[in-house]
Write a structure and sequence with these properties.
The protein is built from 15 helices and no strands. Helix 1 runs parallel beside helix 10. The longest helix is centred in the C-terminal third of the chain and has 31 residues. The N terminus is likely disordered.
Length: 333
């Protein structure tokens, strides 16, 4: 598993990181390189559909036993506790609205970071289980709800602006495109695996062979967008930059502790740590723009996308796996 990799086995993961760097370098050097507007959205939808379908197939194989339910429960617990803890820290430097929006972003997850970690495991031939996709789908929404509750409870002087309809909040939290597509494709994978197993082989060229190339194109675009956000982040100051880099390390450490308690395999532990350590730059910003217009989008988007996302992609994922190999040796599982 983790301890028998050939020197070339990490080459595809190196390729994806290099493509991300290429996007960053294009912006820093003033190149006009860009991915045409409709394609990044298409790549995003493809990656979510692919990982959801494969997760559903694997979830059908593993079932929903006590270990699976405990892991999903721990993921939901982190989705609630992380924004609460982050809000307490951020409130020392920001007003209620910006602190809540930032806390929501760091309490939620980045599906692209998860997908990159899963790809990293695949090329290293480290197994993981499909039920981690269920944890991914379920962790995105609670942080949005927590952030909105924090605003409502703490901003007593907000007046009429605080009367955002809960129907629209819940709709955005649970039916935003990424959650809907992940859950829907997960259910399709479950149904196909149970009632039409031959459909799995038919989907393999789409969900398997094309996956890595699409991921590289998506990460190229993410490199471009992340580099474009660096100027916004510089204006936010040293505190937010430090928060953007330290928070994933702290949350990943908590995730490692929970992984040890839950006796997760090395592959599942990495995915769980990545879920704990990542920050949302798609679903949460969309919700915050609608429900907390007082918050400054350049703060919560640039910190999650400009610092935390590239940190996890370039440094975090290999670092977390290196720690896991020492703390959770394969032979002890």
């Amino acid at each position: 598993r983790c301890h028998g990799h050939s020197p070339g086995s990490a080459e595809p993961a190196l390729t994806s990181n290099s493509v991300f760097f290429l996007g960053v370098l294009a912006v820093l050097l003033g190149s006009d390189l860009e991915i045409p507007a409709p394609l990044p959205k298409l790549f995003s939808l493809y990656l979510l559909l692919s990982i959801g379908f494969k997760g559903g197939v694997e979830l059908q194989a593993s079932g929903l036993g006590p270990d699976v339910l405990l892991t999903i429960g721990a993921a939901l617990l982190m989705a609630v506790l992380v924004p609460l803890a982050a809000f307490g820290v951020l409130r020392t430097q920001f007003d209620v609205f910006n602190a809540a929006a930032l806390a929501g972003a760091y309490g939620s997850i980045s599906a692209v970071t998860f997908i990159t970690a899963e790809s990293f495991l695949r090329v290293l031939q480290i197994p993981s289980d499909g039920y981690m996709v269920a944890a991914l789908a379920l962790m995105e929404s609670p942080a949005i709800i927590v952030a909105l509750l924090l605003v409502k409870l703490a901003a007593q002087d907000r007046g009429a602006a605080a009367e955002t309809g809960w129907g629209s909040v819940l709709h955005e939290a649970f039916l935003n495109s990424s959650v809907f597509l992940l859950v829907g494709s997960l259910l399709i994978g479950l149904l196909v695996a149970q009632y039409s197993p031959s459909g799995i082989a038919k989907m393999e060229p789409f969900t398997g062979q094309l996956f890595y190339g699409a991921l590289c194109f998506f990460l190229l675009d993410m490199g471009i967008v992340a580099a474009q956000r660096l100027a916004d982040l510089q204006q936010a100051g040293a505190f937010l930059i430090g928060f953007s880099l330290l928070t994933p390390l702290v949350n990943a450490s908590v995730g490692l502790g929970l992984s040890s308690v839950l006796h997760l395999s090395q592959g599942n532990a990495l995915l769980f740590m990545v879920l704990c350590a990542s920050a949302s730059y798609i679903a949460v910003p969309a919700a915050m723009r609608m429900t907390v217009p007082e918050a400054n989008p350049s703060l919560y988007i640039s910190s999650a996308l400009g610092m935390t996302f590239p940190f996890n992609i370039i440094v975090g994922i290999p670092l977390y796996l290196s720690v896991i190999e020492r703390v959770l040796p394969a032979g002890a599982l």
